């Protein structure tokens, strides 16, 4: 259970000696194929086929009547000459650069806060988990009001003399606002993963550090953080994927606006695909999204490999 | 390992008679009052959006001003009546329920069948098929949504309930978790059942499946909430308002400039089932999250 990468179970080889039969035709194997058949069929039709089809679509033009014409690299040429695409790329990067640190920091602080014995802690943890089970559409709808010109955040800021106006109509504040919503939605989940990692750190390390005169901040930095690295890395990967694929809250809260200031790559896929029904062009954006995801996961894997 | 960690958290929750380890932990805490204050502040911030949703929903037809609106002097449920009578909300709630519940049943059935085969059977191509499934987790959903739309349209499934459900049931994570869990079911009880003359399907149904109840509950909770809150696929696969699920319907209410109180009433109605599922199955849900973090 502990290792995801453990070799597939070998126990079946140890049991009582069996007559060797061709693995393909032994009754056990046939039954196994029957058991995986429904799952494999759905997987082929709705995961693998769409992935390949999506890549093929990006090299052509799909007419609404169902005709497909191969165009080679036309969609990509158009894409790289399209300011909309470069803007979407910039917005996606900017959003990730804001959302990932905010979300990871909040999650880490909350995990540290919850990693102690206090009366009522289980109630606090349940409360912190509520946003995780809330639909992004619903969160988006209420946060529209929270970030509005005379919403609670601006009222609060007004007491210290600030009046930024409606966050969602400001091209400078729209991404921070979306990042805060995403932090609110996700921190409970991340916090739980980090908490599991913190609880696995032996208490003795903290005592030794304390005997050496390390204060709470020093203990956090020199004991908790290094030993939390695997869990922290997992949260970082999760947040990276989530920030690249953010869509629901953007669709509900901003529709890509104002003036395309929150028009991300995922939003561009939706907009080109289901707004303009330009499936080929939208798929080219999807392929770029795939490449970015792959490159980032490779880089993150490398970084962890080196520091571990 | 996962179970051990969950146990630890559970024990931390019920603090009154601390074990030695916890006594030490207790000594470490700085000032309980300051910590309570911080936690309470974080809890208030976390809950505020829900609170705002409810207070707006019970003050229809009033200007929402701060701070007065946050402490309503009189409340009215007219927005709820309006949401439930004049809108399609009961129909949408039914659609959401069908979408979620049927998906849970199908995902659990197919994922546990495949998980059983991958965990306990030897067959040609097992490793390859398994790792292809896992590798597919890397593919961004937005790349596949358009081809998925085309495939479902070709199959005649657009604007139908089955067309909405079927593409979502090949869930790689669910199968992966099932396989992990079934690997720990002892071979002896499976072999014993076989010696007693149980057929293959019977072994799966009455021996393996009952052993996996906790993971079925965990997965079921996840899949239910994932479908209940799902938005993009129901949005693009259904055109007629009768077929909307609650999340899509809520969004259309916003577009039609329905009064805010009515939207918020509909949002409360949407949230309640997710909240109930979470409260009842919280234990399983928390364990699932913790398992996902342990590699």
What does this structure look like?
The complex is a heterodimer of chains A (308) and B (295). In chain A, 67% of the residues lie in helices and 2% in strands. Residues 1-24 of chain A have low confidence and may be disordered. A two-stranded antiparallel ribbon of chain A has the order 1-2. Chain A is built from 13 helices and two strands; from the N terminus they run αββαααααααααααα. In chain A, strand 1 and strand 2 (68-70) form a beta hairpin. Chain A has one domain: MetI-like fold, CATH 1.10.3720. Chain A has 308 residues and is mostly helical. Chain B is mainly alpha-helical and 295 residues long. Chain B folds into two domains: 15-83, no CATH class; 88-256, Orthogonal Bundle (MetI-like fold), CATH 1.10.3720. Chain B has 15 helices and no strands. Chain B has helices spanning 2-13, 20-28, 32-57, 78-86, 89-120, 126-135, 141-154, 161-165, 172-183, 187-195, 200-211, 213-228, 232-237, 246-255, 260-293. The radius of gyration of chain B is 24 Å and the shape is globular. The chains are: A mainly alpha (308), B mainly alpha (295). The interface between A and B is large, with 114 and 119 residues.
Question: SSE layout and pairings?
Answer:
The complex is a heterodimer of chains A (308) and B (295).
Chain A (H helix, E strand, L loop, with lengths): L26 H31 L2 E3 L5 E3 L3 H7 L2 H32 L6 H9 L6 H11 L5 H7 L15 H26 L3 H9 L4 H12 L1 H16 L3 H6 L11 H11 L3 H29 L1
Antiparallel strand pairs in A: 1-2
Helix pairs in contact in A: 1-13, 2-13, 3-7, 3-10, 7-10, 10-13, 12-13
Chain B lengths: L1 H12 L6 H9 L3 H26 L20 H9 L2 H32 L5 H10 L5 H14 L6 H5 L6 H12 L3 H9 L4 H12 L1 H16 L3 H6 L8 H10 L4 H34 L2
């Amino acid at each position: 259970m502990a290792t995801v990468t453990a070799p597939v179970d070998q126990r079946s080889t140890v049991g009582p000696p069996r007559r060797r039969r061709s693995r393909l035709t032994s009754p056990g194997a046939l039954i196994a194929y029957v058991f995986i058949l429904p799952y494999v069929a759905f997987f082929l039709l709705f995961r693998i086929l769409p992935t390949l089809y999506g890549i093929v679509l990006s090299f052509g033009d799909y007419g609404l009547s169902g005709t497909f014409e191969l165009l080679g690299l036309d969609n990509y040429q158009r894409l790289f000459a399209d300011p909309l695409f470069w803007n979407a790329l910039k917005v996606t990067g900017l959003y990730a650069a804001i959302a990932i640190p905010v979300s990871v920091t909040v999650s880490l602080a909350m995990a540290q806060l919850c990693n102690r014995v206090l009366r009522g802690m289980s109630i606090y943890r349940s409360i912190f988990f509520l946003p995780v089970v809330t639909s992004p559409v619903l969160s988006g709808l209420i946060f529209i009001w929270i970030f509005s010109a005379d919403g609670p955040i601006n009222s609060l800021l007004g007491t210290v003399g600030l009046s930024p106006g409606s966050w969602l109509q400001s091209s400078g504040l729209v991404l921070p606002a979306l990042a805060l919503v995403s932090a609110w939605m996700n921190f409970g989940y991340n916090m739980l993963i980090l908490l599991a990692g913190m609880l696995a750190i032996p208490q003795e390390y903290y005592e030794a550090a304390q005997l050496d005169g390390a204060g709470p901040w020093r203990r956090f930095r020199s004991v908790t953080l290094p030993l939390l690295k695997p869990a922290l890395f997992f949260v970082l990967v999760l947040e990276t994927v989530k920030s690249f694929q953010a869509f629901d809250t953007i669709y509900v809260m901003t529709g890509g606006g104002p003036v395309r200031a929150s028009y991300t790559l995922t939003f561009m896929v939706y907009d080109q695909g289901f707004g303009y029904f330009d499936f080929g062009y939208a798929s080219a954006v999807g392929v770029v999204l795939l490449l970015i995801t792959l490159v980032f996961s490779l880089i993150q894997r490398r970084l962890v490999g080196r520091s571990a | 390992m996962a179970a051990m960690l969950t146990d630890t958290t559970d024990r931390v929750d019920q603090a009154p008679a601390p074990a030695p380890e916890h006594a030490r932990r207790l000594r470490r805490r700085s000032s309980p009052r300051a910590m309570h204050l911080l936690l309470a502040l974080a809890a208030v911030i976390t809950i505020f959006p829900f609170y705002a949703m409810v207070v707006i929903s019970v003050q229809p037809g009033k200007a929402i001003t701060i701070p007065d609106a946050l402490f309503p002097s009189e409340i009215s449920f007219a927005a709820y009546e309006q949401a439930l009578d004049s809108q399609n909300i009961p129909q949408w709630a039914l659609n959401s329920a069908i979408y979620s519940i049927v998906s849970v049943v199908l995902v659990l059935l197919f994922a546990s069948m495949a998980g059983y085969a991958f965990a306990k059977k030897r067959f040609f191509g097992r490793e390859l098929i398994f790792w292809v499934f896992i590798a597919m987790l890397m593919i961004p959903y937005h790349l596949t949504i358009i081809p998925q739309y085309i495939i479902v349209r070709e199959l005649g499934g657009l604007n139908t309930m089955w067309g909405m459900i079927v593409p979502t049931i090949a869930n790689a994570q669910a199968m992966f978790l099932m396989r992990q869990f079934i690997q720990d079911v002892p071979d002896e009880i499976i072999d014993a059942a076989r010696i007693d003359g149980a057929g293959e399907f019977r072994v799966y149904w009455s021996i393996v499946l009952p052993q996996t109840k906790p993971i079925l509950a965990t997965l079921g909770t996840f899949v239910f909430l994932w479908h209940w809150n799902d938005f993009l696929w129901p949005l693009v696969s259904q055109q007629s308002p009768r077929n909307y699920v609650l999340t899509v319907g809520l969004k259309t209410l916003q577009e039609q400039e329905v009064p805010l109180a009515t939207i918020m009433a509909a949002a409360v109605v949407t949230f309640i089932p997710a909240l109930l599922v979470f409260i009842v199955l919280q234990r399983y849900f928390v364990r699932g999250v913790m398992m996902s973090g342990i590699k």
